[in-house]
Amino acid sequence: MSTHRDPLNPEAALDFALERAVAMGALYADVRLQDRLLTLLSLTQRRGRGEHRDVSRHVERGVGVRVLGPEGGEGFAATSDLSRAGLARAVSAAMAGALEAGGPDRPSTVEALLGPPVRTLGKAVTPRRVHPEDVDPSAKQDLLRLAAREALSLPETAAVDLAYADASGRDLFASTEGARVETDSARVLVSAEVTAARGADSFTSAESLGGVGGLELLSEPAVKDLASRLARNAAEWLGAAEPPGGEMTAVLDNQSCENFVHEAVGHSCEGDAVLAGSSVMAGRLGGKVGADGVTVVDDPTRPGTVGMYPFDDEGVPAERVTLIEDGVLRSYLHTRRTAAASGATPNGHARARDFGHLPIVRMGTINLEPGDWTFEEMLEDIDEGIYLMGKRGGQVDPARGVFQFRPDRARLIRHGELGTPVRAPSLSGSILEILQDIDAVGRDLRFHPGGCGKGFPAQVIPAGSGSPHVRLRKATIGGAQG
Amino acid sequence: MEDLLHRAEQALEYARRAGAEAAEVFVVDAPTDTVAFEPEGRGKVALRTAVTVPQHGLALAARWGGRLVGFSSTTDLSAEGLAIAVEASRTASVPEEPPLPLTPRDHEADEPPGADRTLGLVDPRVVEMDLHDLVGLGREVVAEALEAGGSVLSVITTATCRRVAIANSAGLRRSSLETLVSAAAYVASPKGGLATHTRSSRSVEGLRRQEVGRRAAEMAAASEGAREAPRGPLTVVLQPEAVLSLLASSLGPALGADRVLAGLSPFGGTDGKPCLGRPVAAGILTVTDDALLPGGTGSHLFDAEGTPGRATAVIEAGRLVSLLHNNLTSARLRALTAAVSTGNASRERSERMRTFVEPAGEYGYRAGVAPSNLVVTAPGATYPTPAAAGVDRALLVTEVMGAFVIDPAVGDFSVTTTNAWVLEDGHPAYPVRRAMLSGNVYELLRRVVALTGEPADVRGSFSVVTPAWVVDGVSVV
């Protein structure tokens, strides 16, 4: 436990840590300094029981140090103690890790380990009109109250569970290669769950809103509309039957499909999994992995999405990457290390949860590119199928090539028409099979915020995703309760 | 430790000077060393990286006049950082009822009986362990996996020393040290079988690391040649890891009185009162939350508010007999049920990802309620093998994916198996490909017909100590 006395100013802290690493024999070092403020609010209201509110503020300030040792090993350590002594301890801990991970068989030049030098010099301010720190927490609370009132205006609504979060501040990056990058960013999010109840029956519908930007992304009409839509969903799905199970044709709405794309395509195209032989996409570059018309990109520069960033956590400018083009696997997502090891170019997808974690390969904002089908055209030749709507989360095992995700709710499809609502089943499948089973891609590309957990220790980060509607000719639906 | 308590007291003093009427401070310093091995071509496995991740921060809850309570946290423990946290708590305050109930100073409980020695929460080897030692542990796991004929996809070993200090304005002062080590192996067999195995323990000895790589390799080999899974309602044998996955997002959170009070648990009535005495599981099942389980990976001497840990029976012979409480929930329910804190205050991150913009460490969360070790037992001192338990044809499931999206208020699940085998005459007959299990966890609790095999301590956001569950009539798609 450190004493945290006499912290250095940010620029001096970066310089001190880099100089220290070089003096200890590091081949390469980079330092990330983060100084962020978080505001979190929640509001839970159950009809007839009053409201419960929480507000909290959080200071997240610290430095993460990564070094490459003389025998090519990589080490990382972090500290929130910005004094010379605290920074020196972090550099020593990172160096100890690098020495452990090194060895005579390892490449021992920075170029062999990380590829060509990255000497980015830049300063970016992410776009926003209303900075969240300029708005009093009570006004943010009012936004949640507005949503609660709107949802509770429907008589079926029994409960509303709302959360608001903003994070803003500076992230500085500097390396021994001469890179120096500063990002001033702000991100705002609202997450809403609305539960309708009748007797012992209940149904909850959930969705999130927000992205990189200011409070203009959470306008009163947008938040009100979200609450109203979820309340209507929850009321309509009250009494919904259990879904059928087994193999069937499925149409996925924008959010369901973006969840699928994130889990099935995004994670299996991450360079670290590919490099370790832990992805079914390994060794398939240039090969056909999906149906014609399936094009997937990851674009962290897409404005407003929650996964937007100008530079990644290795100082590499963020880049739009085409992963799959018309069914052909074109690229993977890379950090500098995975790019160097696989003869590729880094594409700006190294992300860390915060200063306390090592950057690893992550998505920014992934999406399936639109096709030319309308929703009605997708439905018209389905005799029996299911329409999956919204998203509640998913999971993937890239090595096995298996994924699963759960939508928010579903409807049966009968004879080309939408039928009765059913509760949400999960969809599970083999990544390579199901990408071939996409036989229709819609025109209506939309983006939504989401989160993603990966790594050990787990790093949860905001990740955007988008998709039009799609149709899967054969999907395994986990349905009826036992 | 002294320094942690000093920081906590310093923050209390800053809060008092700023006008707080009462305050509680939680400080944690829990750096985790992690080393990861990955294949490096030509059958070689190499150490890829060694990292030290800090978990270092302070949480402050303070009462700012009347019923206003504010919560803040900081990773910056400098004088400036503490001052910002105090001000943030004041500006974030909202009315709360009752306002900030605190664990009282209790001289008898200041030094919990037995301390570290009897509970086995600290292994001096882990305290003294450096990265080099941890790399050595990892190499042993790799060697065992290779010797058992597997190809290593990844091996990860971790070691954590968690130091905590708690101080409140009622005079409570607590500090503790716990250790935890873990090893995880992901292994492929020559003909494409895949399996993972993970173990956690308070001690290096208890990790039984030699078994981790070997078990993963053996399971991978036994998964070769998988066939289609049988469909329909089947008897399923859920191994402890699969039980944990299902309970982590259902029974575990639902037992928390905070969820009952919020109407987000099936164990509450419409009046917010818990349904104690109601049958909620098969009559053979007894579930105890035991924070004092020696060596338990979820054990603690005191909880995140400083209340001493204890054993609380939550389900006895299938009936709900108690909820789990922290100070706030026990105060809120005291009038209705004479509740007291069961020592289950926890600052572990919520099981739900809400806004994806959240503090990284437990210092960033107000004390909620969570189990420590959920110990599942049935009558009898030992549990028979599936064959001896009379299990004829069943699906043996070691682990499932997709359980984290279960809504604890409802319990519906639809999960995918990773490694599973068909049992015939109680013995594994052949492995099966991915299958989906669906149903409702609370209904599944009622359909447990037997417990089988050795109990295992498996850890997620809390720990479950259980034998495998034999469950009738699970829908397999």
Secondary-structure blueprint of this entry?
The complex is a heterodimer of chains A (482) and B (477).
Chain A: H1 10-23, E1 28-46, E2 51-68, E3 74-79, H2 84-101, H3 110-114, E4 121-125, H4 137-152, E5 157-175, E6 180-198, E7 201-212, H5 220-236, E8 246-252, H6 254-266, H7 271-275, E9 296-298, E10 321-325, E11 328-329, H8 336-341, E12 350-351, E13 360-361, E14 365-368, H9 375-380, E15 384-389, E16 393-397, E17 402-406, E18 409-414, E19 417-422, E20 426-430, H10 431-436, E21 438-441, E22 446-448, E23 451-454, E24 459-462, E25 464-467, E26 470-478
Parallel strand pairs in A: 4-6, 8-15, 14-25
Antiparallel strand pairs in A: 1-2, 1-5, 2-3, 5-6, 6-7, 8-26, 9-10, 9-14, 10-11, 12-13, 15-18, 16-17, 17-20, 18-19, 20-26, 21-26, 22-25, 23-24
Chain B: H1 2-17, E1 22-29, E2 32-39, E3 45-53, E4 56-63, E5 68-74, H2 79-91, E6 94-95, H3 115-119, H4 124-128, H5 131-147, E7 151-168, E8 173-188, E9 194-201, H6 204-207, H7 209-222, E10 232-238, H8 240-248, H9 251-254, H10 257-261, E11 286-290, E12 311-316, E13 319-320, H11 327-337, E14 345-346, E15 368-369, E16 373-377, E17 394-397, E18 400-401, E19 412-417, E20 420-424, E21 427-432, E22 436-440, H12 441-446, E23 448-459, E24 463-476
Parallel strand pairs in B: 10-17, 16-24
Antiparallel strand pairs in B: 1-4, 1-7, 2-3, 2-7, 4-5, 5-6, 7-8, 8-9, 10-24, 11-12, 11-16, 12-13, 14-15, 17-20, 18-19, 19-22, 20-21, 22-24, 23-24
